[in-house]
Design goal:
This protein is an alpha/beta fold and about 270 residues long. It has one domain: Alpha/Beta hydrolase fold, catalytic domain (Rossmann fold). About 35% of the residues lie in helices and about 15% in strands. The protein contains eleven helices and eight strands. The strands form two sheets. Strands 2-1-3-4-5-8 form a six-stranded parallel sheet, with helices on both faces. A two-stranded antiparallel sheet has the order 6-7. Helix 4 crosses helix 5 and helix 5 crosses helix 8 (about 175-185). Bound molecules: 2-acetamido-2-deoxy-beta-D-glucopyranose (NAG) (4 copies). The site of one 2-acetamido-2-deoxy-beta-D-glucopyranose has 3 residues, from loops. It comes from Arabidopsis arenosa. This is Palmitoyl-protein thioesterase. GO terms for molecular function: thiolester hydrolase activity. InterPro entries: AB_hydrolase_fold.
Length: about 270
């Protein structure tokens, strides 16, 4: 090897080392019926690392697959909050990528985790942010009971649901401005919706869109994110972030979580 080529190689190696050392790390949170060790959830963070040059890994909660079904979301957030506080590499801050139900854990981590390291960018893939109105996900004892929201029975939801009303600061006398303050600190919020998603119902919930509130007998009209009260009254700071140009509403072809690598490069990697 010539002297010149050798120094170029040294410089390139040095620069990639510097990049790894100074780049912000990320964590990934998987969805329901999944675990960090399965094929998809072990490969996806590796793909993200490969493409971005940032370190990152899937963070497991409890025993993975069965806890993703059985453990209440409040408890899942407590666990992941403790975990990120113990991860020294996240001390100066980190980014989050979350899949499906993992987004409700991610948002809990951002809003509820006292004294946790700062979260900079948050990329949400198919998160049921405004609720899930699909009936197959029933059963009071299951994690999804924390975000089931049947549009024809909002009063019951406000009274009984244990997780989403709190996460979304929906209950008039129980709104906590700390949650909003923390969520508003994000530098970027990327909300990815899949056009053929039949798991998140309505799929627009991935953008914080949902059916209009009330006690209707048939399905109420669907509201865009900007038409919801969560947005107009800015319960969690979504409007503040949007007005500041920090929210990216991304709509991709394909079914639930079916993201093409070209779209990963375009919409996820720039935030890692
Ligand atoms: C990531 O890069 C490593 C090393 O180049 C490669 O072996 C691996 O297959 C890649 N993984 C993914 C998921 O892209
Ligand atoms: C709001 O949340 C913060 C952070 O968890 C907590 O310290 C505070 O006590 C809460 N305030 C109210 C009024 O519940
Ligand atoms: C529900 O419907 C009843 C009868 O139509 C009405 O009196 C009541 O105000 C409604 N409640 C809500 C929360 O919309
Ligand atoms: C989305 O669904 C439509 C209607 O079922 C279908 O024609 C189209 O091929 C689907 N697109 C993708 C990318 O899955």
């Amino acid at each position: 090897m010539g002297k010149k080529r050798f120094s170029v190689a040294v410089a390139v190696t040095f620069l990639s080392l510097v990049h790894i050392v100074v780049s912000v790390p990320f964590i990934m949170l998987h969805g329901i019926s999944a675990e960090c060790s399965d094929h998809t959830n072990s490969n996806f963070p590796r793909l993200l690392s490969n493409l971005s040059g940032s370190r990152g890994s899937c963070v497991e909660i409890g025993n993975g697959k069965s806890d993703s079904w059985l453990m209440p979301l409040t408890k899942q957030v407590e666990i992941v909050c403790d975990k990120v506080k113990q991860m020294k590499e996240l001390r100066l801050g980190y980014n989050i990528v979350a899949r499906s139900q993992g987004n409700l854990v991610a948002r809990g981590l951002i809003e509820f985790c006292d004294d946790g390291p700062p979260v900079y960018n948050y990329v949400s893939l198919a998160g049921p942010h405004a609720g899930e109105s699909s009936v197959p996900f029933c059963g009071d004892h299951l994690a999804p009971s924390g975000y089931i929201k049947i549009p024809t029975d909002i009063p019951e939801y406000m009274k009984s649901s244990k997780y989403l009303p709190k996460l979304n600061n929906e209950i008039p006398n129980e709104r906590n401005s700390t949650y909003k303050e923390r969520f508003t600190r994000l530098k970027n919020l990327v909300l990815i919706m899949f056009q053929n998603d039949t798991v998140i119902v309505p799929k627009e919930s991935s953008w914080f869109g949902f059916y209009q509130d009330g006690n209707y007998t048939s399905q109420p009209p669907l509201l865009s994110p900007q038409q919801t009260k969560l947005y107009t009254e800015d319960w969690i700071g979504l409007k503040t972030l949007d007005v500041a140009g920090k929210v990216k509403f991304v709509s991709l072809p394909g079914g639930h979580l079916q993201i093409a690598t070209t779209d990963v490069i375009k919409y996820v990697v720039p935030y890692l």
